[in-house]
Amino acid sequence: MRMPDPDDRVFRNRDALLARLRKAVPGGVIAEEDARRPYETDGLTAYRQLPLVVVLPSSTAEVAETLRICRGMGVKVVPRGAGTGLSGGALPLADGVLLGLSKLNRILDIDYDNRTVTVQPGVTNLGITHAVQHRGFYYAPDPSSQIACTIGGNVAENSGGVHCLKYGVTTNNVLGVEFVTMEGEVVRLGGKHLDPEGYDLLGVLNGSEGLLGVVTEVTVRILQKPETARAVLLGFPSVEAGGAAVAAVIAAGIIPGGMEMMDRPALNAAEDFVGAGYPRDAESLLIVELDGPAAEVDHLIERVEAIARENGAFYSRVSRSEEERAAFWSGRKNAFPAVGRIAADYMCMDGTIPRRALPQVLRRMTEMQAEFGLRVANVFHAGDGNLHPLILFDANRPGELERAEAFGAAILKLCVEVGGVLTGEHGVGVEKRDLMTVQFAEADLEQQQRLKCAFDPDGLLNPGKVFPLLHRCAELGRLHVPRGQLPFPDLPRF
């Protein structure tokens, strides 16, 4: 995994850079090696790099001035939220500034009439719900890391969560943002109104992985808590049967509030960790939550149970209280740390496939375990086909990290092969960067790079991420003239 070559000029000018940054962000510049160490990686800990310097601004003005300084001195910048990302999107650069946004952590406005909350990017995902739940409201996207992950990072990666099947991912719940360009210009997109005017630049910024600008303020929609929410646990004799039940439920026109699946290794690890009451003898476990009016929920639970039985379910248990419903979800929400107890290391993949392909892909992943000599535990958002295979390995054993990477690449290629995509919510970062050519043709990637060039013509924002080969912006669109001979010289040129 190669990153852009460091610029010796930046190292030579480090003292001058530090002096300017310390003046712009008093008390917010970290230059000592030991103090920079906690920022050397994000949630993808297989890759590490000590940043040149860490800057922790406390305001939009300090973000803007930091970016102006870096652009003027030709210094790369890597934005970072809470560091919970799993694709290496916040991996620092040896010659770059790591711009941490954790101090921008205030809730700026709560507007119940318009059902919006405006926050700074360092506010945690769960922090929004905590701020409004006393009035019966909540923020719908709920990644498993919601207790720690921040809204700025959610926007960067277009994060999802267990309840996004019905209520959408981050982009469906963000109404407006304030962001700072690499030139230090502060720009606002959208607001509290429902539909933005003109081009959907807000949609472009969601999921842009810090390549286009640094988000400093976000306005999100909040929802009223449903009248009733109940969950049902469904156990199946095989992962294929569980996958078939998922497709059958959606095909029946039922859109659950959440629909998650775990295979036997994952559900047993979760059960050992939190004691959620999962059936240990099931090869796959489906958690389906229905919400809405009580009569509707009761009716839909009966329909879901019937569909599950038709697809081989031998276990069914419906939550009888809010505490029991929360317990069902606690196992799923804690599946990642639970799996961490049964393996020295694991690599969490993230690909999305059509629901109809679930049985096929799950069966193929089982076969791949023997091919690569590694185990996999499956935890995923079944309703929208967003897979999260956890590849178990031991980095201290020679060759196992490389085999885990190869296993992960094979899974992602399989996702594309069956009509899916490389990522659902974790982003591309460095993890999937070199696989982008599997999904996109060269012309597609060049068009995406032109969009980046419109925002960041010098390529200073988070370089080395997403694109397998980042052309210089001046190169894109130029005509190649081999041996000085223009192709079709008789054609008029304008």
From TrEMBL:
What PROSITE patterns is this protein classified in? Answer: FAD_PCMH
Q: Which UniProt keywords apply?
A: FAD, Flavoprotein, Oxidoreductase
Q: Does the keyword section mention Oxidoreductase?
A: yes
The molecular function GO annotations come to: FAD binding; oxidoreductase activity
Name the cofactor(s). Answer: FAD
Supply the name of the protein: Glycolate oxidase, subunit GlcD
Q: Which residue ranges does the record assign to the FAD-binding PCMH-type domain?
A: 47-225
